[in-house]
Design goal:
Blueprint (H helix, E strand, L loop, with lengths): L1 E5 L5 H4 E5 L9 E10 L2 H8 L16 E4 L5 E4 L11 E5 L4 E2 L6 H6 L2 H13 L7 E5 L4 H12 L3 E6 L2 H10 L3 E4 L5 H8 L5 E6 L4 H9 E9 L12 H7 L2 E4 L3 H6 L1 H17 L6 E6 L3 H10 L5 E5 L7
Parallel strand pairs: 8-9, 8-11, 9-10, 11-12, 12-13, 14-15
Antiparallel strand pairs: 1-2, 3-4, 3-6, 3-15, 4-5, 5-7
Length: about 325
Amino acid sequence: MQAWQVHENGEPSEVMRLRQVERPVPGDGQVLLRVRAANVNFPDALMCRGHYQVRPPLPFTPGVEICGETEDGRRVLATPALPYGGFAEYAVADAAAVLPAPDALDDAEAAALHIGYQTGWFALHRRAGLEAGETLLVHAAAGGVGSAAVQLGKAAGATVIGVVGGAGKAAVARELGCDVVVDRRSEDVVAAVKEATGGRGADVIYDPVGGQAYAQSAKTVAFEGRIVVVGFASGTIPNPALNHALIKNYSILGLHWGLYNTKKPELVRHCHERLTELAAKGAVKPLVSERVPLEEAAAAVQRVADGTTTGRVAVVPGNGAAV
């Protein structure tokens, strides 16, 4: 079969190589899946660089999120068991963690409903306790992770402010349903958020960016507000001033979704059921901006790493025939 492999760490476009390899053999408790669609996530780029908290042994195949097909023909969602990731014709996954793919979504959309939407659901509902009528601020609102949070926030009855970088991404954020869109390249984010909230600030802030975005969050969070830290796409990990959190009376919450798979896997399945219901009602629908063939996976990962994409980019291997 064909699979992309990383033999050394570096930029995705430089270190990912498409190879002919043997089809992976599932271990105990694992299943073999034919890849129908594999989503590109920022952690794929970080793993190529060797900067992610999970460091699979070299060589490995990136691709942490797929819609696959079991040997008996069931369409499922899975996070592949590395080093046999999703940018290949076949992958393996832990059988206990495989979830049914929602009928309301196609393969690429279904793959995109998994990590980003699970992260958003746990962050907004489990950690921050977002309530209807509150104001939610989402950084990188037009990206794969941010777009999921925007839709989930609207589905929860929140007023959503989306922060984006550039006019093109601002248009995408409006289409996603943001009530207010702030272009950080041409506007003062802090002033715009305070104006939009009558000086009160946002009740919940969803931050997958870190760096300057976190500094803006601390200045725009409301009394008894909650800042949820879900990642550092900017490459800069902030150092929060805890005295500031004390004086303004707000909470700083961390969300590492992967821990729930080992600590409380039953909550992951519960979340998937809620997401499936929302998809069936049309309340959420993953924004898949591109569907590319397997041969273009490395370039797609690089574009996500460079921050030039909107929504999700999906790699579609085609018929997945073995070689």
